[in-house]
């Protein structure tokens, strides 16, 4: 699906690509719950002057695994997993590093804010950048027995003749990378985003945006209503945007600029992220330290390869 500008997901962490790779050396998710912050909304400071999230520094940024870090951790783990496969008689080409191009730009993570893009593609994927969205190198297709060695499962049950979690699990353990921690960080991002959208300050910004749109002849209560208008999605999501969609998208972006949508929403999001950081600080610092240790091990594995 290519509906990429819903504001319901303000932040898209690289952890989302975990489903594209083998499961990491994980601990039960129940061990890493999102600690609940105070129910009282945090104070929101003056709105920053930012045009998109690329210009903003958010509290959780310090703890979130970056795109480049994720690529190196994944590739080092992958190489070790394929070294493991050789012990079982499978000499395979592991493929290259992940690409993850689409995760590097978060300019539209609060909804469409680029007027030129709106004019070109409406709310659909911009054809000018569609070729840059390659997400990962899948490597070779494994046979059933190779898959058992890699995953550590046979017929849905743990295989006893391979390492726990298979060669993939061994690779992650040798690096010391726990991808469950990245998923937990994504949960924090999502929690902050959800609270942001429900905040009274955000609702006021949405109301101002809606009033602006109404003056331009468009009746939408919030930006998601415009981007997810069923009229734009009657056929395939890959269909080109209609003129009506493009006009709506341009009006949407102009109204966002008029009400300082990105600046105000960034201020609210920052407040909620900071609240969650303070509530989960001990766990966040622990995860950050573990990732830094894993990066050092990954660098050692990758040196000379």
Give an overview of the whole structure.
With 305 residues, the chain is mostly helical. It has one domain. It is 47% helix and 1% strand. It has 10 helices and 2 strands. The chain has helices spanning 67-87, 115-121, 144-151, 166-175, 179-198, 200-215, 223-227, 243-258, 261-279, 281-302, and strands at residues 153-154, 157-158. It has a two-stranded antiparallel ribbon. A hairpin with a 2-residue loop joins β1 (153-154) and β2. Mean pLDDT is 86; it is low at 8-32.
Mean model confidence by pLDDT: 86
Q: Give the class from helix and strand content and strand pairing.
A: mainly alpha
Question: What is the helix/strand order?
Answer: HHHEEHHHHHHH
Oligomer: single chain
Number of helices: 10
Shape: globular
**Helix content bin:** 40-55%
Distance between the termini: 36 Å
Number of domains: 1
List the uncertain runs: 8-32
**Integer-rounded radius of gyration:** 22 Å
Main sheet: strand order: 1-2
> Based on DSSP secondary structure assignment, what is the total number of beta strands?
2
Task: Describe what is shown at a glance.
By secondary structure, this protein is mainly α. Helices cover 47% and strands 1% of the residues. About 8% of the residues have low confidence.
In terms of topology, how is this protein built?
Elements lengths: L66 H21 L27 H7 L22 H8 L1 E2 L2 E2 L7 H10 L3 H20 L1 H16 L7 H5 L15 H16 L2 H19 L1 H22 L3
Antiparallel strand pairs: 1-2
Structural features:
305 residues, mainly alpha, two-stranded antiparallel sheet, 2 strands, 47% helix
């Amino acid at each position: 699906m290519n509906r990429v500008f819903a504001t319901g997901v303000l932040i898209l962490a690289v952890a989302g690509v975990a489903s594209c790779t083998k499961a990491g050396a994980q601990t039960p998710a129940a061990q890493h719950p999102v600690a609940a912050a105070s129910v009282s909304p945090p104070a929101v400071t003056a709105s920053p002057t930012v045009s998109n999230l690329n210009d903003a520094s958010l509290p959780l940024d310090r703890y979130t695994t970056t795109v480049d870090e994720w690529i190196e951790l994944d590739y080092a783990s992958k190489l070790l997993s394929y070294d493991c496969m050789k012990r079982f008689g499978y000499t395979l080409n592991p493929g290259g590093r992940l690409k993850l191009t689409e995760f590097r730009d978060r300019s539209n993570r609060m909804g469409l804010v680029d007027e030129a893009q709106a004019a070109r593609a409406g709310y659909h994927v911009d054809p000018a950048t569609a070729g840059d969205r390659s997400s990962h190198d899948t490597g070779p297709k494994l046979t059933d027995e190779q898959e058992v060695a890699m995953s550590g499962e046979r017929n849905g049950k743990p295989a006893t003749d391979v390492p726990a979690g298979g060669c993939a699990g061994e690779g992650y353990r040798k690096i010391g990378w726990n991808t469950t921690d990245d998923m937990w960080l994504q949960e924090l991002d999502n929690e902050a985003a959800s609270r942001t959208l429900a905040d009274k300050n955000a609702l006021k910004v949405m109301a101002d945006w809606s009033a602006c749109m109404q003056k331009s002849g468009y009746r939408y209560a919030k930006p998601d209503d415009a981007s997810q208008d069923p009229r734009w999605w009657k056929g395939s999501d890959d269909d080109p945007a209609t003129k009506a969609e493009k006009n709506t998208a341009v009006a949407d972006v102009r109204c966002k600029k008029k009400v300082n949508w990105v600046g105000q929403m960034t201020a609210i999001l920052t407040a909620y992220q900071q609240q969650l950081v303070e509530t989960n600080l001990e766990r966040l610092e622990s995860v950050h330290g573990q990732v830094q240790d894993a990066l050092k091990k990954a660098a050692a594995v990758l040196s000379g390869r």
